[in-house]
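Subject: sequence -> structure tokens, single chain

Hey, anyone have a minute? Need the predicted structure for the following. Not urgent.
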Amino acid sequence: MNYLTKSKFKLGLECPTKLYYVDKAIFPNQKKEDPFLEQLANGGFQVEALARLKYAEGEMIDTRNRFDATNETETLLKNNSAIDL
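Reply:
Had a minute. Here:
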């Protein structure tokens, strides 16, 4: 028996067709844990950690908004607050 769980309800709101196919064996779930994708995501954190070690005196730009990050970077460069590579 298939139950309408919270996850399935949210999936149905996103796309009713996905809700129809979610438990069908011939359509595997692409959101299952994948060790390769997990390590790929962790790689980004490793790059950040290495950059922080190499440029410890550098300015950290914490925003995830790329436009804000670009503007903040340009401001630091104009103020000579950026470090020399």
